[in-house]
Amino acid sequence: MKIVIAPDSFKESLTALETANAIEEGFKKVFPDAEYVKIPMADGGEGTVQSLVDATKGRLETLSVQGPLGEPVEGFYGISGDGTVAIIEMAAASGLHLVPPSERNPLITSTWGTGELIQEALNKGVKEILIGIGGSATNDGGAGMIQCLGGELLDKKGQQIIPGGIGLADLVSIDLAKLNPKLKEVEIKVACDVDNPLTGPKGASYVYGFQKGGTAEQIEQLDQNLAHFARLIRQDLNQDIEFVAGAGAAGGLGGTLMAFLEAKLQNGGELVSGLVGLADEVRNADLVITGEGGINHQTIYGKTPICVAKIAQRYQVPIIAIAGRLSGDYEAIYEHGVTAVFSILSEITSLETALETGYENIKQTTQNIAAVIKIGKK
């Protein structure tokens, strides 16, 4: 019996690889002679770098970069095992978690540090860069990133605009003559699981600006600034990205990656599953097991369990999902190929305890799942 184990991380508890190890350990108590294939998964958000480094036997690179408020932070990115792909989480340099709640202000936060991660990846001679763009603290439309990479966003005096979303109001011209030439030698793919346009009521500022510390007045200003940025992009780059799905991701970073760097936005889970060759392993499997920390009605919109389930369904392989928490209308995942879903919690407990005991809970739950499967085989 061949069992493919392809979970996402259980955030704040276990990495995707640790989760896969726990699942394997539980199943081996019942099926010690089965063939186990572990493929750590992610959907472009937190944990994507670690998952792909683990899955490809790659390595992590750390470096000091500029954080959202301009202070130095320790950033990181991954290099695939064959050295051809760099994996970046923009949140590692420009993430909301890097800004204390009392200091959050989307008018001044910048994506400059994300540009530094890209620069370092280019210096490694990779052929492809994958960028996950979830969890940002920024609303600058990716302006800081472009400036870091050599692009010039100039005000009426011919000077670079100031950092943050507030600086976009002063933009009068875009000059990419000094953009890092190595960017032309790589393919850039963006793992993005939202479809927000750049501006408007469903755009970057109005949907995500408040959680980044913006006031109602600031949100309106930021939306106007991004609209102004979009007009200049149309004028100087002949690119119209204002209402393209995904352009509003990460405070407008999605749109800038498309317009300035010719990046391709893709569903994060589908992108990761392609990179790790998940389909090749699932096609001749007897069972697939996936999971993540929480499964609810939003899981069906491109989260890891659904991406894995689509592949399993393609080859008519049964798939079981596990989660730390089942909530909302989680049963919706049954309509998307999942055969069964289980919570790993056996008793009411605090969140702290649940996070600390994740490995044991997964191991025990999957042992029980395996025992039931064995009954069915008799």
TrEMBL record:
GO-annotated molecular function: kinase activity
Domain of life (superkingdom): Bacteria
Sorted UniProt keywords = Kinase, Transferase
Q: Name one Pfam family in it.
A: Gly_kinase
Q: Which InterPro entries match?
A: Glyc_kinase_flavodox-like_fold, Glycerate_kinase, Glycerate_kinase_RE-like, Glycerate_kinase_sf
Which PANTHER family does this one have?
Answer: GLYCERATE KINASE
For this chain, the family text in UniProt reads: Belongs to the glycerate kinase type-1 family.
Q: What is this protein called?
A: Glycerate kinase
Which species is the source of this protein?
Carnobacterium antarcticum
